[in-house]
Amino acid sequence: MPAETVALARFLLGTILVRDEPRGRTVARIVETEAYLPEVDAASHAYRGLTKRNRSMFLRRGHAYVYFIYGTWHCLNVTSEGEGTGAAVLLRAAEPLEGIARMRRRRKVAKLADLARGPGRLAAAFGLDRRQDGLDLCAPGSELWLAAGAPPPALGESIRIGLSSDAHRVLRFFERGSAFVSGARHLNA
């Protein structure tokens, strides 16, 4: 797994996200990510330094940084860089593979493409909240972990979605042609 944030954002496309719970397993293939760079990225939660809310973002690469946004959604990030450096990759969308009935119950939608399209929907489909914040996604026996997958056949990139600070940066990566990618069509070409 690459340490550099942009390289990790690209690498995670095609990777498998797995959550093991007593009632079963939830699995999806990551199809969209966004990079949040260390120190220079005003859109990053780590831009102003370490806080109680973002402390997991400063863990060594491969940990979960889960935060609550807009009073409605949790979002899942994978930390990047080295310990003490605040950087992460937001998991924006995924293609459901296993545990689909569980995802549908959590999301209350029937359409497969809508289960994990968008970062809040992805976290909701997996039943994630702040309790998963800080988990090592590469540790054996973790309830939430990453498994090897296959890189997408075609990679796309664009500006990140829904930002006002550093909105011009091309730090969003996605699988071209995937029905599970979020965002406006003009950003997914």
Descriptive account of the structure:
The structure is a single chain. The chain is of the alpha+beta class. It has a single domain, classed as Methylpurine-DNA glycosylase (MPG) (3-methyladenine DNA Glycosylase, Chain A, Roll), CATH 3.10.300.10. The chain contains 3 helices and 8 strands. Strands 1, 2, 3, 4, 5, 6, 7 and 8 form an 8-stranded antiparallel beta sheet that branches. The mean pLDDT is 94.
The outline comes out as globular
The count of strands amounts to: 8
The CATH topology label is 3-methyladenine DNA Glycosylase, Chain A
Beta-strand residue fraction: 25-35%
Structural class determined from secondary elements: alpha+beta
H/E series: HEEEEEHHEEE
Radius of gyration: 15 Å
Mean pLDDT equals 94
Number of helices: 3
The biggest beta sheet reads:
8 strands, antiparallel
CATH architecture: Roll
For the record, what CATH class applies?
A: Alpha Beta
Q: How many domains in all?
A: 1
Low-confidence stretches: none
Q: What is the share of helical residues? A: 10-25%
CATH superfamily: Methylpurine-DNA glycosylase (MPG)
Multimeric organization: single chain
Query: How far do the termini sit from each other?
Result: 27 Å
Helix and strand arrangement:
Layout: H1 5-11, E1 16-21, E2 24-36, E3 64-69, E4 73-79, E5 88-98, H2 100-107, H3 119-125, E6 144-147, E7 155-158, E8 172-175
Antiparallel strand pairs: 1-2, 1-6, 2-5, 2-8, 3-4, 4-5, 7-8
Main features:
alpha+beta, 3-methyladenine DNA Glycosylase, Chain A, eight-stranded antiparallel sheet, globular
